[in-house]
Amino acid sequence: MIQRVDFHNPFDTGAAYINVEPASSLSFLEVEEKDGHILFTGKLNEKDRIYGLGESMHGLNKRGYRYVQFNTDDNNHRDSMPSMYGAHNFFVVASEQQARGFFFDYPGRLIIDLDSKHQNTFTVEAETNDIRVYEIQGKTPYEVVKEFLKLIGPSYLPPLWAFGFGQSRWGYDSLRTVEKVIENYKKAGMPLDYVCLDIDHMNKYADFSVDTKRFGNLQLKEKNIHLVPIVDAAIKIEPGNPVYEEGLKNNFYCTDKDGKPFTAYVWPGATNFPDFLKAEARTWFGSLYKFYTDKGIEGFWNDMNEPSIFFSEESLKESEKERLSDPLYQSGSGHPSDYKRFYHDVNGKKINHFYLHNLYGMKMVEASNEGLSKLLDKRFLLFSRASYIGSHRYAGIWTGDNSSTWFMLQRGFEMLPGLNMCGFLFSGMDTGGFMGNCTRKLLLRWLAVSVFTPLFRDHSAKGTIHQECYRFAGKSSFRNVLSLRYKLLPYLYSEFMKAALRADMLIKPLAFVFDKDPQCQDVQDQLMVGESIMIAPIMKKDQDSRLVYLPEEMTMVDYYDRSFHAKALSQGSHRIKIPLSHVVFFVRKNHLVPVSLKGGMSVSEVDFDNLSFLGDGTSYEYYRDDGETREAGLEKIAEIKK
Ligand code: MIG
To answer: Cα(52)–Cα(54) distance, rounded to whole angstroms?
Structure first.
């Protein structure tokens, strides 16, 4: 049961995909309005758990913490960070007999306090009182989530090649460097499907430009590898550059209080910010991707779209004390006061950015997606850093600038089910960690996690040690985990497509599947991936074995020496040894995992028709298509037998 209540004049964010007729009052929340603010209060039982909030800290159960939903570029990832790159204002309160879901569809700053004061209450406080609230009631949290996923609609569909392994690094400074990375992967016998280009490839960091001296015309010798360039949100102020000039001439930029294009500083120096809230500006921005699609490029990542702002002339005048005492200040977040310095034009109405802040990234990927859909006649890869509920219909996301620490591997893992609850099926983390130096051990354990996430990319920051897989000794361990990805692709792709087409989750907490088993309730270092696989990776530094809880009898699959070794295990807890060179996972009883034993050095080499099976089931619902058609549909699912 889903119910919507509008307070005053909520902004139409575009989060919902289906229309729910508004009702007059909420069932589970007390409402208090004061001085133009609004405060919602809900009651909790002692034992209630709270799931959701997508990209956010504190693991699976969010109870006991306070979150500030305000998209922020802060690369100092830590438990106490209140805001990340996405605002996913949906959570589910799971009680013993029922579950209640809440979605606060609100584009501005929202404070979600999930009982941080330990008074058995949660509160949600909005900056203004124009807000749309949805309540969803169900028997279990999973039932509520599925209802919510119907409300926000189906996931964006990436092409099949985007499920391959991608290498990325900020600092690949020429096409020659990129070619070398590709050669080295090949020489090492490691598969690869794409290489991401970071801001290094642009001409003075101007969007939709390439430094031709260093990057030529972006044509790789290796035709089987895709280049995936970055596109930043802000446009370099550069008289004579047609991209900049067109935006200026047509009033496509956000404006300052005097109605002039708002100027602030990011990588290219002085920039203007496309007004993605304006339909014509979106259409224009989307059309700019022609620069790349003309060169045969079909994959992109959108960055800096919180938007990230280093400073403006005005905020530079601010004292350090003022800056640091701004309640919105976070370690990497520039001068938050800048968010009050510019305006959007929404159907002729000027609205201060601050009140629409969390929509900027979503509206950017909406622009990119619509442009690319016109420019290409097949699916494309697109993922974004900033997001809002609903942006999963346009693009995937990655979880931003994590660091090469065991802590961030764990937190990233724990975020996966929350992201799936908010629709973000095509998501993943910077494998190996972005900031800081990665060790061989950490990278191998991280790969053994990301090998199960749809977006599977190794990315690192300039200045850190290189973390391409071939750089490390003992290459056979890296070949092992990467080869597993390509053998599992028939399963991973099929499960992704089924979840996307049915508006379901791909990666789930155990508690959602084994809801009658109280032991599963608090498990957050094990997850379900699709309908058949459970993963229980090692995410601690010097461990080579761990306890794994099996809610039912399962087949343990130990993958080493590039082959599968299966063994039946009984229900209960087991200490499992997982050497660094192995990947272990579990297949549910009466289930199957279709695999291609041949694997491949790229997705195009994988045989999706000659399948072998892991597990003791007898049949499997297999989704199969050409991997690029937009006409994906449930009719492409067929029951196959072992
Ligand atoms: O201010 O483009 O999250 O992946 O490598 C940093 C450089 C800008 C942040 C992204 C990261 C990317 C980096 N970018």
So the answer is: 5
